Amino acid sequence: MYLTVFKEEIIEGLQKAANIIPQRTGAAYLRSIWLKAEKGRLEILSTDSNIEFRGSYTADVTQEGLAGVQGRSFVELLRRLPSGKITLKVDAEAPVLHINSEGGRGKYKFPVNDATWFQSFADFPEQGAVTWSGDFLQELIDRISYCIGDDGSDALSCLFMKGVGGESSGSIEAAGMNGHQFAMCSFSNDDLHALLPPEGILVQKKYLNELKKWLGNDEIQVNIGDRRLFVRTENKAESFSLPLSSYQYPDYGIFLSRLSGDAVSSLVLNREETQSALMRIAIFNSDSNRCTYFDLSEKEAVLSATGQEVGSASESLDVEYSGDIEKIAFPTSNLLTIMDHYASGSLSFTLTGAEGPCGIRGADDPEYLVIIMPMKILDDVNFSEEQV
User: Fold this and answer.
1) Do residues 330 and 292 make contact, with C-beta atoms less than 8 angstroms apart?
2) Is the pTM of this model over 0.70?
């Protein structure tokens, strides 16, 4: 392999490739970045055995070939080299990859891995590919992933996406839950609705985090292959694929239906004022009492917290409230995180009971719903957390 390429054209792709590979553990071929030169292109490939990254960039190829190098060290070297042309040449007899930078005085060598270690990557399926917005997918992941469990061993560690409302509706629901929180975004996309299988798809949270790092603001192409989700840039230069899970997702319609029951209570409050109050009250939370109590009346909500070591706090907020629940408690940090994901000036809480699911919606976020479980109030200091 012998080629010349401009550093500024490949460095971003190299960094994306390095983000995927394990740092120290795992087989050597998984810690490798593979460089494939052919037909005037340099292809950069990396995998952790589940996620696959593939980037193709213009290069002046003198001799085609394949070389695997220690990924993170190679990327760190190229990151520190000056901008301009970089020459990559494999000495087949050693075998060693020689790196030279135009105008630089340094000469660098990396041992090359046995080419038999290389495993073919899954190709992006061309038929049926759908164009989508990269920044929309980023926002979707952000608004759902914090409600997804971290266990990694069941459906509650996955984002669930499914078409709803019939084949011609174009309506899609994306949801995530972790046992005490649930988030759902609804949106319309006819092409994506047609692409999704009837049972929907499940993507593990750990893969979502890597996908979000890779995504940009430009449009992307999406396709679903044999138990894999494929995403690539619109110009087809870079692709990212990850495995889909086969768990059975819980029927969240059961607790969604409780929000429309006859006996629900309604609380409307100002988001920014409530956030400010919660941030001050959080100072008085402790490991044994991490919630904020809401004492509710028609026009007022008194928020309070007590910590055995730090004292107590209470603040009064102007609200609109109707219902029979006089007191309810929520985990302070969870409530703050939820409110950060809304743009609306006011939020509506639908309370199904002092220990029942509470749905949160915003007037300017009609497509977004979060459900949080209240804390079971035992006394002024102690509590336990109910599960969905």
Assistant:
1) yes
2) yes
**What residues does 32 pair with on adjacent strands?**
70
Partners of 229 in the β-ladder:
224, 242
Flag whether pLDDT at 381 surpasses 60.
Answer: no
- Measured between alpha carbons, how far is 371 from 388 in angstroms, rounded to an integer? 9
SS (H, E, C) 118-160: CCCCCCCCCCCCEEEEHHHHHHHHHHHHCCCCCCCCCHHHEEE
Q: What is the pLDDT of residues 117-139, one digit of tens each?
A: 888 899 999 999 999 999 999 99
Listed in sequence order, the residues at least 6 apart from 12 whose beta carbon sits closer than 8 Å to its beta carbon are none
**CA atoms of 296 and 311, how far apart (whole Å):** 22
What's at 170, amino acid-wise? G
Task: Report d(CA 17, CA 75) in Å as an integer.
Answer: 9
- Does residue 237 contact residue 55 with C-beta atoms inside 8 Å? yes
Q: How far apart are CA 50 and CA 30, in angstroms?
A: 10
Contacts of 251 (CB under 8 A, 6+ apart): none
Query: What are the backbone angles phi and psi of residue 144, rounded to the nearest 5°?
Result: -110, -40
CA triple 192-196-198, angle to 5 deg = 140
Q: Does residue 238 contact residue 17 with C-beta atoms inside 8 Å?
A: no
| C-alpha span between 342 and 50 (Å, rounded) | 33
**Which residues on neighbouring strands pair with residue 289, listed in sequence order?**
286
Cα distance between residue 134 and residue 120, in whole Å: 27
Least confident of 20-29, 52-61, 282-291, 333-342: 20-29
> Mind listing the pLDDT tens digit for each residue in 8-49?
999 999 999 999 988 766 677 778 999 999 999 999 999 998
Residue 18 to residue 344: CA distance in whole angstroms: 38
Strands in 235-275 per DSSP E = 238-243, 265-270
Residue type, 19: N
Long-range contacts of residues 86-93, Cβ cutoff 8 Å, at least 24 apart: 86/4, 86/5, 86/6, 86/7, 87/2, 87/3, 87/4, 88/1, 88/2, 88/3, 88/4, 88/5, 88/35, 88/37, 88/42, 89/1, 89/2, 89/3, 90/1, 90/2, 90/65
